Every structure is written in structure tokens, then in C-alpha cells.
Amino acid sequence: MNERYSRQELFRPIGKEGQATISAKHVLIVGAGALGTGNAEALVRAGIGKLTIIDRDYVEWSNLQRQQLYSEEDAKARLPKAVAAKQRLVQVNSEVEMEAVVGDANVEELERLATEARPDVIIDATDNFETRMIINDISCKYGIPWIYGACVGSYGISYAFLPGKTPCLHCLLETVPIGGLTCDTAGIISPAVQMVVAYQVTEALKLLVGDEASLRGKLVSFDLWNNQYASIRVDQVKKDDCPSCGGNPTYPYLSYEMQTKTAVLCGRNSVQIRPAGKREYDLAKLAELFSDQGFSVDSNPYLVSVSLPSHRLVIFRDGRALVHGTKDIQEAKAIYHRYLG
Amino acid sequence: MKLIINGEAIDVPERIRTVADLLEHFQLNKKIAIVEVNACILQKEQYATATLNSGDRVEIVHFVGGG
């Protein structure tokens, strides 16, 4: 044995026993962007037994400012994030078993990952609430805790969801939020990422060593630039009739009707996206949200058309959208989620 | 009116009477937020009618999606 984990073992709440426990645990990280790379590096250094990480995107120059596992070489080569992340993580700690999945974190894939090699904890490092609702239903269905994390600007938020104990994301949100600010519209500074990562990894370590009594138990948020901190105990929000975690769960976000449908429009260099479930957008509000963020927006009573840097996004009242300027379904979905959440 | 918002004493303009007014003041009215007043979480339907009093302790956490 070498001294690799000696300082973590000296930390009393973990100790040698806790370290041995951690080394037998499996963590699934959904997303390999800023939060995903931060969580992955910390957990791999901490010596978990196995890491699975899934991402559909590739490395771009605009990622390097905060996505800590990637290098200029990765951006030049446009390496898939999951592949580039694994390459770096193996250098960091070759003792950890690693599975890198290049693909869409959809219902089918996440259900496979949750059941084939059952993870002990799922870390949310996604950039949209649709995927989070899927993670939430999978967590409830298979009894796997998951740790929400998100950040934008200098603001961040986190919460650890424990199936059967805490409220679930569906209890807290009721519906999927739309049109919020994202990193691509409001920017992000890396300390906000690192702070959320710190909250997520710490709660994950507590869960992995079985120290549930030490869990924070509160929804926490902070704004590093404006020097603010808030936390709320949300236990009372748990709903007995919640379709995801209540007495008679239907796990609505795992059903076919609730999944995003896509189609390439022949000869138009466009992809149509039909989001999960029924939506009814307030188009005026949506147009205002985009123009507030500095985009050029055209609208009529039926649709809103937004000019993005390299694509045009047209959104209809029922949530259906056309992404012009690509034939790539994954790229179109990424753009849709980036701007509509 | 003086409120304790996220642990800090803040003077808010007199026109602010309800939780809905406060969220609008902080430009959080278009976002999904959890609001707690004096350790009690409010339902969204209550925002427009829940009046605030000087000294109330308000915690606001709003959801974001980026990551």
C-alpha cells in the first residue's frame, strides 16, 4: 500500500474504514461539462471503486476556461468529452475502474446504466431539467440517491435527493422550468462551478461512507460575486401523491410520451424537436427572455424566432422547435437544451 | 421596510408589500424559486397574497439549469 489516501484517512469521519468502503463504491456522473469534470476528478482522486461518466458533446475551446479535465489538444481534436475525461482521469488515478459513455443521457441509456452496474450515487452534472427529471424518476424507481447541482454566472445551487427520505425534484418543481438563464447566455465563472462541485462531492462522500446523519439536508444556494448565501430545509415539500416518489408512482418522465422526439427535416438543414409532455409557452414572455439576453428575436402570434450565433431557433407555442443550420440531431438537442433548459 | 433576506438585513422599498412584490423587485418573478418566510415554505399560489412585515426572515433559493 502507498500513501495515496493517507490524508483522507486521517480525516476522522472517513478514516481507514471509510476509505475501504469508498473504494468499493460506484458513482455515475451524468454530464462531463464543468460540474461533471470537477466531480469526476475529485471522486477519482478520493479513490472510489468505479466511475461511469456519460456525455454526448465534444470538447470546444469555450470549455477550457472551467472544464478542468480538458486540454487544448482535446479541443483541437474535438474529442468527445467522455473520452477526453477518461484519458485524463486514468492519468490521475489508474486504480479506479472507469466507463466512459459517448452518448445521449436519455431514458433508455440511463435506465441501462442504473440497472446493469447499479451505481451507489448518481451525480447530476447536466445542463437541463428534462434530463434531471429523468434522473429523478430513475432515482425514485431504483432507490439510488442523486445529487443535484447547477450554476450560472456566479450563482450555484445544490441538493442531495434521497429516495424515500427527502422530497424529490418533482415535488420541488412540479413542472420543468423553461427559458431560464444558462451558461451560454449568462456566462459562468469557474469558482461558481468549484463551489457547487464542493457541495456535491462532500455530500457524495458522506453517502459513500454511510454517514447519512452528517448530510446537510437543505437546499443550498450562493452567489460568490454578490456575497450571498441561502439555505432552506425543504422536507415539508414532499408530496404523498407525487407521481415520481409518492405512494403510487408512475415515473412519468420514464414513459415514451414524456421523451423528447426529434426528426431531421429533409433538404432543409434543420432538425425538429418535440419536447417531452405537453407544454404551452407564453410566447411574449419567451421572446422577452431571449431579447433580454441580447439575441435578435422575431415573433408572431404562432412562433418566436431567435437568431443564435450559428443557428436559428424557432419555437412554437406547444414547445415544438426547429433548429435551423444543422442536420445533426445531437447538436440540435444540445442547442435546444442549452437555450430552453 | 427592513427584512432579513438570506441572512442579511436589507432595506426594501416601501412599495413592496407581498412576496410576489419582493420576487419582482429582485427580478426573480420569472424564475422558479423556493421561498421561505420565518421558517415556513410558501406555495406559489400564496406569493401574491402573503404580506411581509418588518423584521421577517426571508430565504429565497431559485433554480438554475447550467452545469
Automatic annotation (TrEMBL), chain A:
Residues 5-243 form the THIF-type NAD/FAD binding fold domain. One of its GO terms (cellular component) is cytosol. Keywords: Nucleotidyltransferase, Transferase. Pfam families: ThiF. InterPro entries: ThiF/MoeB/HesA (IPR045886), ThiF_NAD_FAD-bd (IPR000594), Ubiquitin-activating_enz (IPR035985). GO terms for molecular function: nucleotidyltransferase activity; sulfotransferase activity; thiosulfate-cyanide sulfurtransferase activity; ubiquitin-like modifier activating enzyme activity. Belongs to the HesA/MoeB/ThiF family. NCBIfam families: PRK12475.1. This is Adenylyltransferase/sulfurtransferase. It comes from Anoxybacteroides voinovskiense.
TrEMBL record, chain B:
InterPro entries: Beta-grasp_dom_sf, Mopterin_synth/thiamin_S_b, Thi_S, ThiS/MoaD-like. SUPFAM superfamilies: MoaD/ThiS. Pfam families: ThiS. This is Sulfur carrier protein.
